[in-house]
Design goal:
The protein has about 575 residues and is mainly alpha-helical. The protein has 2 domains: about 500 residues, Sodium/glucose cotransporter (Up-down Bundle), CATH 1.20.1730; about 40 residues, no CATH class. The protein has 21 helices and no strands.
């Protein structure tokens, strides 16, 4: 397949538009000279652009390739995950989001300091920052891999190109550029997904034929209600995992910073609900591409026949086989993959800069920084994190599949961190000793599940090469020898056979339960916490408690007296 002139034009236009949006916001309005504008968009951003920008977490290149490969190899049971997203939406809008709007601060981890203490804030901030840096290196690597595979440029050049574009419009355009660019990029991603499905419909004869082929070969499965924890995908583990994974949108810096660009809490809630149906359309369409790809290769599996080495390459192979002779279509697909990388990485660069300034720099500066100085440091941090992501991306090729790495990182950090914020906002007696103990044990337990001991190989549904005309005998021999060496699942230690969808669930459970128990053991009846740090229905109950109000008023009076006397002393 040749990447033609029209394809280069399509790709070039996408890159130019993304960069131009950053330049536009640099020289319009307030010109990104204040932190209010640079990091929070003056809190006057529109509902529709922000709703689209919230979707970038779910349009990443790893999910684009991994989602289609999952459905192709293991069937449609995975789509039950999105039911958890629906259930998780009210948790975001009515539990987490109102608290952050009342706080109104740039760093979400500042909440943890007010609720528990400085040590909890620092611990969670560092842990999640490490996870985010590694995760973003993966997100930057995936589109670069597509550049190398389809266009033929070197992987290193591709990584630098994608990284530099991210840095340019993030550094000079701020959160406004990121929101508007994300909206544009999500539309491009949708276009590339529908292009794949459209080509499959044309080749097979329609959606019903694609579905029929998948059903005939056992790819359609939606009724696995097994409660065995070692079963890879069931209604139980997908729903619970989906709820917690989606609830992370209510406490991560990237998403909360976008919520705070809205003028008020009501607008932010509308924004979250508006993004949900768009997310479901993207997610189900993304999964349907797996069935579309299967309709072409159901008689000659590309992995078994030796054309490709792993399932993550299926989508790229399909594009090369079906769109290579259509001017501009391959360019649209590559632009979609590029957009998925840009829209995932750029908001995180911006948010990591905000965290670093608020959590790692401000506490060690004696004199208050001016607004101009803050903007300068933020832009410097954006560039620094961009360069760090680029450097780390060079090493991702030495690790496993993209989807496996991203899910592993989410499993280790996601559950325990969500549990800490849940403890803080829902449990009045929870304290710092409980939260830190729970977080430590939760992270250790999640790490053991994710990284410990050998795990059984993931079983794929039936594949055939009966319809192949050309086979790579060397690769087939290698695959067969690998399969023949697989041990029985029962020979693996039980906890390493547990479904990866339970990693985030068990990490949450351990952190939350230990946090409750230890907080009860070290309960301090004299400690009073600001009711505004709790989710609304808990805060309202506390405010109606006469004893609590009396202690809180006394505590505030003493605090004000100390602040008044301190300068004199």
């Amino acid at each position: 397949m040749a990447f033609g002139i029209v394809d280069y034009v399509v790709l070039g236009v996408i890159i130019c538009i993304s960069s131009a949006i950053g330049v536009y916001f640099r020289f319009t309005g307030g010109k990104q000279k204040t932190t209010q504008e640079y990091m929070m968009g003056n809190q006057n951003q529109g509902i529709i652009p922000v709703a689209f920008s919230l979707l970038t977490v779910y349009t990443s290149s790893s999910s684009l390739f991994g989602g289609s490969a999952e459905i192709y190899s293991h069937g449609t049971q995975f789509v039950i995950l999105y039911i958890g997203y629906i259930i998780g939406t009210p948790i975001i809008t009515y539990v987490f989001l109102p608290v952050f709007f009342k706080l109104g601060k740039l760093s979400v981890y500042e909440y943890l300091e007010k609720r528990f203490g400085r040590l909890t804030r620092t611990t969670v901030s560092i842990a999640f920052s490490i996870k985010t840096v590694l995760y973003m290196a993966i997100m930057l690597y995936a589109p670069a891999l597509t550049f190398e595979t389809i266009i033929g440029v070197s992987l290193e050049f591709s990584i630098v190109l994608v990284g530099v574009v991210c840095i340019v419009y993030s550094a000079i355009g701020g959160i406004k550029a990121i929101i508007v660019t994300s909206m544009f990029q999500v539309i491009i991603i949708l276009g590339s997904i529908f292009a794949v499905i459209g080509v499959a419909m044309y080749e097979t004869g329609g959606l019903s034929e694609i579905w029929s082929i998948a059903k005939h070969d056992g790819r359609i499965e939606l009724n696995n209600f097994n409660i065995d924890p070692t079963e890879r995908h069931t209604w139980l583990n997908l729903t619970l995992g989906g709820i917690l994974i989606y609830s992370m949108n209510g406490i991560t810096q990237v998403q909360v910073q976008k919520y705070l660009t809205m003028k008020d809490k009501t607008s932010a809630i509308k924004c979250v609900w508006l993004s949900l149906p768009i997310l479901l359309i993207i997610s189900y369409s993304k999964c349907f591409t797996g069935l579309a790809i299967y309709s072409k290769y159901h008689n000659c599996d590309p992995v078994k026949s030796g054309r490709i080495i792993k399932d993550d390459q299926l989508l790229s192979l399909y594009v090369m086989d079906t769109m290579g002779n259509i001017p501009g279509m391959t360019g649209l697909f590559v632009a979609g993959v590029l957009s998925s990388g840009l829209s995932s990485v750029s908001p995180v660069i911006n948010s990591m800069a905000a965290i670093s300034l608020e959590d790692y720099i401000n506490p060690f500066i004696k004199d208050e920084l001016t607004d101009k100085q803050k903007v300068f440091y933020l832009k410097l941090l954006v560039v620094s994190y961009g360069i760090l992501f680029i450097l780390l991306s060079f090493f991702i090729k030495y690790f496993g599949s993209l989807l496996q790495m991203s899910l592993t990182l989410t499993g280790v950090f996601g559950g325990p961190v969500v549990a800490i914020f849940t403890l803080g906002m829902l449990i009045p007696y929870a304290n710092e000793k409980g939260s830190l103990t729970g977080l430590t044990l939760g992270l250790i337990f999640s790490s053991i599940l994710c990284f410990g001991g050998p795990k059984p190989a993931i079983k794929s549904l039936h594949r055939t090469i009966s319809g192949c005309t050309v086979l790579n005998e060397t690769v087939i021999t290698l695959l067969n020898s690998t399969l023949s060496n697989n041990k029985s699942e029962d020979s693996y230690f039980y906890i390493y056979r547990i479904s990866y969808m339970y990693y985030v669930v068990l990490g949450f459970a351990v952190t939350f339960i230990v946090g409750l128990i230890v907080s009860a053991m070290f309960y301090d009846s004299n400690r009073v916490v600001d009711p505004e740090l709790f989710t609304p229905f808990i805060a309202n109950r506390l405010k109606k408690t006469r004893n609590f109000n009396k202690r809180y008023s006394t505590s505030m009076e003493l605090k004000q007296q100390n602040e008044t006397l301190l300068p004199k002393i």
